[in-house]
Structure of Cytoskeletal protein CcmA (Bactofilin family):
Amino acid sequence: MTDAPRADQGPLLTYALTTVPNPLTASPPNVKPGDEDENSYADIDLVISNSGSTPVRCSKIAIVLPVGTLAQDLALTGEGISAYVEPDSGWTVVDVQSDVLLAVPTAETAVFPAAGAEGPSKVRFSIAPRGGESEVTVDGLYLTLRRIMVSDKAGVARIEIEEWATEEGTIPDTPRTTTLDVAKFPFRSGADPAPGIGRALVALTSQGGPPATRVAANAPVRLEWHHVRGDSHELYMDGRRVTDAGIAGGSKYDVPADTVRRDTAFALKTVTPTPDGGFVVRWDHLTVCVTDQTLDALTVSGALQANGSLTTGSAGETKFNHPVSVLNAKKLTATGELRVDGNASVGGTAGITGKLTADGDVQVNKTFTTGTAGESVFYHNVTVYTPSKLVVGKDMQVNGAVTGSLKVTGSLNADGDVTRGGKGVLAHYDTISMKNTEKGGYLYAPAYDYDGDRGYIFRWKPGNPISNGYWKIERNSTTAEAPQGVPAAEDTPGAAEPPAGE
């Protein structure tokens, strides 16, 4: 127990405190184990010094915390509070009662120098040991109270300070007193009492649905937060403020579909007025992850691995500034147009099941082989330069004309007629008739018919030919109609030309 305080006199020392967090938030009412909302805890930092002009000797200081569930109470309980004092070499803290803390100098008394005294500010400790006197000096007192469970009612709590001190003479048994006010602001569900940290913003897949920790691209998302009358909110996403009139004084916002296309961060700003006419700004942040993200641009500084399909959109194009390799005997398939503006090198086989179109030149440095099915069609000239040859291993069909010289070193077989200048060319086994254009007679075979023209038979004599006189040869039948077994010209024995006139 402490002596009754002196109500007629204030303390000789000066006291000031701050709280962590600042301002304080009251604990939620009726907290039970397993509840999402937890009690609020606070620390109090108290500084003590002599602001007067006369030194002060102090034997002890008591700090009285109001405990209970009323608005004027600071703590729900006095248990679990830890106290620390600096300098700990000259002072010690004694827990007299659960709600009363005593700061006691280790040397029985401490001297606080007056303000403005020469030299550094120090506190003197005077004791009366068995063998004489001893002094200890310090520069002030700093007291910290940690893990105070804050009361669950908003209001102003008064911390009582009891001081046993004197400026001269004996320290009285009755303490001097003062009070320090500490404000407690209303509880926010799920909130850390520190300003700037979480205000119970949550993302759901729908009203009453599960948390939207991972959603599909463009899926709708519902945001909810705790709102108390007087709060004003601002919501931000995608680098912009969401301009919805219901956000400022509301507690929810439905993010439309086709909005969350990638991992999206949301920030909720809450401005809360304080009893002294000021305000406190708090921020809440959360991120919704998207499974199949849609990105405006993607830059990968390292390796990019796609274990599934890689699909690009119909607009734009895919550019590679380095070689592209298709490994493990896989294929590069182009169902549409494949355009190569530069050189295309194929070290192996290029298999094309569809059509290959080349608007420019096609150069083949080695063998060019086509399959057995289909045909090779050329709508322009095909030129074979010397000394190369055009080799036809089987039939060659020419539906048009062959211009220029044609040299055949082997056999030339023609199933149809061969013409030169529009006239037929004689071939082996063709049958012919000969007519003299001067006399109009025919040269007959040995089968005589004894008609009138058989007497006009001519043979050539040395000398100039008769003007306009020649033998006309006419083919009577084609090679295909030639009689069988007729000897070839090269098989007929040669005979000397008969003498003239025979």
In short: Residues 14-185 form a domain with the Immunoglobulin-like fold (CATH 2.60.40).
